[in-house]
Amino acid sequence: MPDTGILDRLRAAVDANFEAETAFLADLVRFPSLRGREAPLQDWFARAMAARGYQVDRFTLAEVPLEAHEKAAPMVGVDPAGSVQVVATRRARGAGGRSLIIQGHIDVVPEGPAEMWTHPPYAGVVRDGWLYGRGANDMKAGVAAMVFAMDALRDAGLTPAGDIHLQTVTEEESTGNGALSTLLRGYRADACLIPEPTGGTITRAHTGTLWFRLRVRGVPVHVAVADTGTNAILSVMHLIRALQEHTAALNERAKEDPSFSAVRNPIKFNPGIIRGGDWASSTPAWCEVDCRIGLTPSMEVAEVMRGVERAVEAARAGDAFLANNPPKITWHGFQADGYVLEPGSEAERVLAGAHRAAFGAEMEERLSTAVNDTRYYGRYYAMPALCYGPGGEGNHGFDERTNLELLRKTTLSMAAFIADWCGVEGA
Amino acid sequence: MPDTGILDRLRAAVDANFEAETAFLADLVRFPSLRGREAPLQDWFARAMAARGYQVDRFTLAEVPLEAHEKAAPMVGVDPAGSVQVVATRRARGAGGRSLIIQGHIDVVPEGPAEMWTHPPYAGVVRDGWLYGRGANDMKAGVAAMVFAMDALRDAGLTPAGDIHLQTVTEEESTGNGALSTLLRGYRADACLIPEPTGGTITRAHTGTLWFRLRVRGVPVHVAVADTGTNAILSVMHLIRALQEHTAALNERAKEDPSFSAVRNPIKFNPGIIRGGDWASSTPAWCEVDCRIGLTPSMEVAEVMRGVERAVEAARAGDAFLANNPPKITWHGFQADGYVLEPGSEAERVLAGAHRAAFGAEMEERLSTAVNDTRYYGRYYAMPALCYGPGGEGNHGFDERTNLELLRKTTLSMAAFIADWCGVEGA
């Protein structure tokens, strides 16, 4: 925990800058940084960081050897050369202090029908202590917090004694390749903090995620002899039911997972996008569904993939259309392991102290049934990876919003964490 | 049956023109006359008929008072002002002979994925006695037949003694408003022939068709607490299952229909287009499915519509998402009655004689579980409406093709029918 003097200086700086931080977050939200369209935000962010005096490395996924890494995930329909990453570095005078990566993703998921939003999804509207918009909470609030935590140190006259990399990445919502690319680019540190909107809790473990596309295509039985089960839409329904049963079986196995044994049905299966057919009076000959399925940290990605394939193959037997037209599975995104932040790390201890100082309460832990980027740093590159940040609601839904008071407090706890982890000059 | 001399002269003319007829059909197929995009074909057809000396009336659906007719169907997403109809009239010298309308639709249904076609769908390729393409059989072959049946009379030196209207219409595959518009425009005759691809059979009865769009939209249960039944795609699956059960009940009732009692399950329910969600990892908050359901000629359209609405409403109770988010039903196309061609008409007797003369075999009858335009002429405007024409396969599917030898023979039987029904001068 920082000493009281430092904490007070940081709090004063966070408070003094909070109007600017809120405006910065609203600016971030106004970029519709959907997958494949993140570059304008990243360009703007790179300029903003350069203006603050950071040394900025801006590169695309086409510039790193992703395909050579076993944990890279396939990207379908997105050009790696358009997927821009930013690493803004502030080097310490010496090399003695502990270094830190703070990383946020700036890709957002689609907003859905505009009319289902109370406030326009890319307007950055502030009402009653909340900032609204797609990505406001997941996780542009965390990105604003990391920038203004560093600004608070600067304005408090404190210089971190360790190197700091502020990283904004893409692809967190689809593959994770953005986070991986920063590691392949060479960035390392003694700890990593990812300020996802955890509501001020530390993420003890998260499940993994797989994406796959089921495509059913073939010559249907003629409508004149069709009763049921002979059209591609109905066949996809059949496969979805089979995968629901498969998920139930996986959740039985999940009871043995050390981290998730107490969570009821931690494995979520979600058919998220469906499209098929082109005419109400034609028997549809094709249908596709994009799906997401989870896995516990103790399950192997390859094994769960084979399980999905076996479940789909087994379902063919019960369907007239599929028997003659084998469905195609494309693994078109996430092939993400789960991750467990083992308790007891020095980084977590320091963060808990900073949280206690800022919030006046203990930092609680949570389990997440959704993936985040910490697995790259923590599971594959052996640095303690802390997922901890502000909070709100409506991620991936409507009226997404982040709580501004939580943002303010988390900005302070992050500033205090930086000061304690890296040490500061000027204290 | 025409006398042998006339039949021989017609046969010689049909044969002499058959290469041109095949080329004409290929030209028709090369127009991708999908719904809303039929106008270029109609313009071309109008010019072709004017060049043959017909008096041509070209008008759009915006020029007739469709909305005033109870049997008009809603058009969604299509501009009536772009939906062009053509009536090409050859008036007899006197008004003594029996008049005749021959009508064909030139709209086609979407072709689906191009790679599933052996020959390109809009190329008009001829192979081994078949002409391939979307609409080649359904029903541009019939349109070619009606034009070249009339050409055969002309080249045989025979002038019909009754007025003839050759009509090409749109919207047969979606509403029927094209056929209705010719009646609202004022065209009437003593009989109507629609040369749908019946393979040289007469259609004794056809079922009706309804189109509806089910739209599910609402705030889903959060993915963190979602197991099953809480996403819009799964809810649409639930509604489809309910409508399958409803269809089974309708097919029980269909056993009482005088025309279709011997047909197993004449009521077909088809979910034809589905679309929903926008992200594999977001719980989908909306899903739409475009459906088609049939009815027997003895069922009332309004009653079947209410039945579908009740089935959907009843299904809400069993679904967590739908209980809070009522699905919306849009009746967005067909509201078509079935039709029975009562046996014994003079028109059918004359057609049977022409068929016998051309084919050397009796004209058989069929029952159709798909709708066609005859209902307007026969059921609402009290003229005998004969559905009889060439034949092939692949309607609404892949590798649609029409049989050229059947086209040649049907062109002859249609020419003979015109000669016998209207009478001819120059015999």
From TrEMBL, chains A, B:
Pfam families: M20_dimer, Peptidase_M20. Its cofactor is Zn(2+); Co(2+). It comes from the Bacteria. Its EC number is 3.5.1.16. The keyword Hydrolase applies. The keyword Metal-binding applies. Keywords: Cobalt, Hydrolase, Metal-binding, Zinc. Residues 205-315 form the Peptidase M20 dimerisation domain. PANTHER family: ACETYLORNITHINE DEACETYLASE (PTHR43808), PEPTIDASE M20 DIMERISATION DOMAIN-CONTAINING PROTEIN (PTHR43808:SF25). This is Acetylornithine deacetylase. It comes from Muricoccus pecuniae.
